[in-house]
Amino acid sequence: MSNNFKDEVMTAIEEVKNSLVKDKEISDKQMEILLLTSLLEEESQ
Amino acid sequence: MNAEKIETPELPQKKRMTILQLNRIGDIVQTAQMVRLLKEEHGDIEIALVARKQFANPVRFLLDGLFDDVFIIDTDEIFRNTSPLTLSGVRKKLSKFIAHVNAKPSHVSINLTFSKSSNYLHSLINSTHKVGPYYNKQAEVKIEDKWSQYLYATVMRGDMNPFNLVDLFKSIVGVKAKAKNNTEKLKTKDTILIHPFASQDRKKWKSNKWTEVIYKTLKENSEVKIHIVGANNDVEATNEILTNPILNSYKNRIVSHVGSKKMEEVFELMNDKTLFVGHDSVISHLAATKGVQSLTIALGNARVLETAPYSANNYILSPKTKCYPCFPDQECNFYQCHSDIPYQVVNFCIDKLVKGQEINEKELVSEASHFLTSSVDIFKTEFSTQGLLTLNPVISSGLNSKEAIRGFYRLGWLFNLSEIEEGADFPTLTANCQNELKTDLSGIKHAFELCEFGKKYSRYILEEISSATPSLEQIKAHSEKIDEIDGLLTIVKNTFPRLAPIVDYLIVAKGNLFGNNIVQLSESAFLTYNEGANLFSVIYDLIEKTLKEANKNIKTSTKDLR
User: To which CATH superfamily is domain B16-173 assigned?
Assistant: First the structure.
């Protein structure tokens, strides 16, 4: 997996974290990012 | 107004259910077994399945006729075939997949997987009701239904679950249809299908032990043929078995399909003249689906009742090893449980089942020595009057405290969560077990009292809120008391580990209280503590009555001696 892709994913997760810190509800788009990350995690196991 | 109008698809007329099962093939087959019973009861429901490609495709032949839609997540396609690999490219594919699943909204979605991915995916499923875990908009895991809370608290954290996984799936979904016992006479067998492999080393014997079993089976049963099945990565282990010189004169009666037959072809190989012999694996579940009798050897972390093939008249051998069943992450270099099941006992069982006979204790002890049978348990599967799978011990021996309390939990959970009363005889307990259960009684008393205190302080909060001048200070003080009670319940759990299932369940239930305001949450907390008090009280009664009965029997037998 390219480093660019990893960076993109990390940035997207940071955005989700930030909105949670600000007590904002997470959107479906952000939920998709979380799903994608967990699928990636499982793939690497 | 520039806002884009979003079209929400309407709910279909027919009731639609979407089931998420992202786990391995065995879990998919067990889900299919539950769905078959659901369809018997409600043939008019439209059912969709969401599963992973690598686990669902090998058993598509079972799924396609059963489910109205099968949605396959292909992570290879999403991650590896996206070129160039960019976040937007990957997200586009994932969004397309989710849109495809949501094209027909569901009345209910059910997550049977309990993994992070399936919980996120569950949140994205367009459904009116969600059963099983999902993430809410605050990214917190929510489990609202009782049986999923039970599964999460008990199955995921220990070995105290007294139910088969198919029955748990039935309870989560609310399937009432009862699985039935097979009343037909057992048939003689001319073929034995052996799957001597499993997903982990701890769950399977080494090749040499299987060689012994195969050699003795062929020697003692001249009419029988053996078919060995397995995956591509089992070819080497199969060769180790087949090239052993003791099998040289029997090669014409052994057929290896390892690495060459698809799951569907293996399924087709089995018929009512076949006996399946193997470890806990998908093939045993496929055999059960077809009504083929099986003899399963449970080792390592395979939990006997939880993963037993879901049909009647199957036999399961499990070791009496102290550390059995273990956990997958527990280190073990010795595998004592592997040697606690002697191959001679397996051969005795095979001989009986091939002849269409039952396995009984008397013959087992006289033909195989007591020395060989003392380290192994043998169970026969049967459905209870409530249509739930039970394991009946073939070798009568007193239960240890874990086994005994697991049986009490079965009655308690069924009564508490489904209002089902399942009859059971008083179990025979070992002397050690009686002492341990007596000790547990004091733990149960503490836990019961704590639940009663929990009820009291939840009620105080409600009373304070409904008073003319509610005091925030008072509410805070009562709430702190509740936190203290929860802390004390955890201490009780650590001191009396056999009480963990109820305490863990209460923790999960309290983490998923209903309501959006303090009144609703306090009411929900009251009901959860009440549930805990009821459960502890039922278990206390069952232990006390069983101990009294055991005591009565001791007195009667002492009288006989006089």
Answer: Glycogen Phosphorylase B; (3.40.50.2000)
